[in-house]
Design a protein that fits this description.
With 145 residues, the protein is of the alpha+beta class. The protein has four helices and five strands. The protein has a five-stranded mixed beta sheet, with helices on one face. Helix 3 links the parallel strand 1 and strand 2. Helix 2 packs parallel to helix 3 and helix 3 packs antiparallel against helix 4. The two termini are 15 Å apart.
């Protein structure tokens, strides 16, 4: 179940974002001074609304976490379309300076995990060997019945 604040923040009647808007999202992050490389592999195909929204929101939250917790890091966003799933991967390098203190605990990683599990997918996150961080979500092409 989605958190109430997620639903309220998105607006009751606003169209839900899809991976078609990923370039726009990446552009916004670049506009904030972050170096972002984006790559897509496989054949783009229509996904169910739940998968589209969840994939977009996972990338959005991962990029938000980079901006908040890894100042000066470079980011790679990968979207992979496979025969039965779509994978989104957001990897950042180590920050080049200490982040500002966080103003409260968010629901970032927990929310990403919940969105993924709700759809029957797999979620992994953790530090990279180079000192960065990575988030990977694999979502089935169809919402569970």
């Amino acid at each position: 179940m989605l958190r109430t604040e997620d639903t309220l923040a998105e607006g009751a009647h606003a169209p839900q974002p899809t991976l078609d808007r990923l370039d726009e999202l990446v552009g916004t992050v670049r506009g904030a001074g972050i170096t972002v490389v984006s790559e897509s592999t496989g054949r783009r195909r229509p996904l169910s609304p739940g998968v589209e929204l969840s994939a977009f929101r996972i990338v959005q939250e991962a990029l938000s976490n980079v901006m908040r917790h890894a100042p000066g890091a470079r980011v790679r966003v990968e979207t992979g379309y496979h025969s039965a799933a779509v994978t989104v991967r957001v990897t950042n390098t180590a920050p080049d300076r200490v982040p500002a203190p966080s103003r409260g605990a968010g629901h970032g990683l927990l929310g990403m995990r919940e969105r993924t599990v709700m759809l029957g997918g797999d979620f992994a996150n953790g530090p990279t060997a180079e000192g960065g961080y990575e988030v990977v979500a694999t979502l089935p092409l169809e919402d569970p019945v």
